[in-house]
Design a protein that fits this description.
The structure holds two protein chains of two kinds.
Chain A (H helix, E strand, L loop, with lengths): L8 E5 L4 E6 L8 E7 L6 E6 L4 E2 L4 E4 L5 E6 L8 E8 L13 E6 L1
Parallel strand pairs in A: 1-9
Antiparallel strand pairs in A: 2-7, 3-4, 3-8, 5-6, 6-7, 8-9
Chain B lengths: L4 E3 L2 E4 L5 E6 L6 E7 L6 E7 L2 E5 L6 E5 L5 E5 L8 E8 L8 E2 L3 E5 L1
Parallel strand pairs in B: 2-11
Antiparallel strand pairs in B: 1-3, 3-8, 4-5, 4-9, 5-6, 7-8, 9-10, 9-11
Classes of the chains: A mainly beta, B mainly beta.
């Protein structure tokens, strides 16, 4: 499975956009990029996923570079409730339930 | 619509004992996966069940076993508990639609003393 690299931590001002980078330089053509987040003492929460096109939903936007070696998760207007650990994960296919969570990025949103 | 529910939320056991954790998947989901999350680390995949059979397994010893019932709910059993088994145990469910995201419960916090 492709491995991902994320910064250990980052701060963001409340109301500003938060841009979370992720490197996945060994990603294969059939592998999807998934983002989850985990707020303290809760289970991971699904945010968004994509293959090669940019994706947007009510929570965030996902920008994947043309060569697919990196991606950026964008939280458009960060709130204090967005403080969490964010995980970037590469998932192979339908039959792959073995998600490989790394250490993730600890995002702290400050007032 | 209830999401993934797990019980109990907290549990304290003694070394050598056995424990059973339970999971009810999100409505409409038929696949259940289990993860172990030690303090300060990301979740680690234990195994996945579909159609009442174990389909995928991570790098966990045979002390970890599971079961899936006809109603898609699942149990995780751990025998001969070790101190190192203390962790948050997470259940995730999904359906079989291509690349359907996994939905996680809030876990069971197991403490082994």
């Amino acid at each position: 499975d492709a491995k991902t690299t994320q910064p250990t931590s980052m701060d963001c001002a409340e109301g500003r956009a938060a841009n979370l980078p992720c490197n996945h330089s060994t990603i294969s053509g059939n592998e999807y990029v998934y983002w989850y987040r985990q707020i303290h003492s809760q289970g991971p929460q699904y945010i968004i996923h994509g293959l090669k096109n940019n994706e947007t939903n009510e929570m965030a936007s996902l920008i994947i570079t043309e060569d697919r070696k990196s991606s950026t998760l964008i939280l458009p207007h960060a709130t204090l409730r967005d403080t969490a650990v964010y995980y970037c994960i590469v998932r192979v296919n339908l039959n792959d339930y073995k998600l490989s969570f790394g250490a993730g990025t600890t995002v702290t949103v400050r007032a | 619509d209830a999401g993934v529910t797990q019980s109990p939320t907290h549990l304290i056991k003694t070394r050598g004992q056995q424990v059973t954790l339970r999971c009810s998947p999100k409505s409409g989901h038929d696949t259940v996966s289990w993860y172990q999350q030690a303090l300060g680390q990301g979740p680690q995949f234990i195994f996945q069940y579909y159609e009442e059979e174990e389909r995928q397994r991570g790098n966990f010893p045979d002390r970890f076993s599971g079961h899936q019932f006809p109603n898609y709910s699942s149990e995780l059993n751990v025998n001969a508990l070790l101190l190192g088994d203390s962790a948050l145990y997470l259940c995730a469910s999904s359906d079989r639609v291509y690349n359907s995201p996994l939905h996680f419960g809030n876990g069971t916090r197991l403490t082994v003393t």
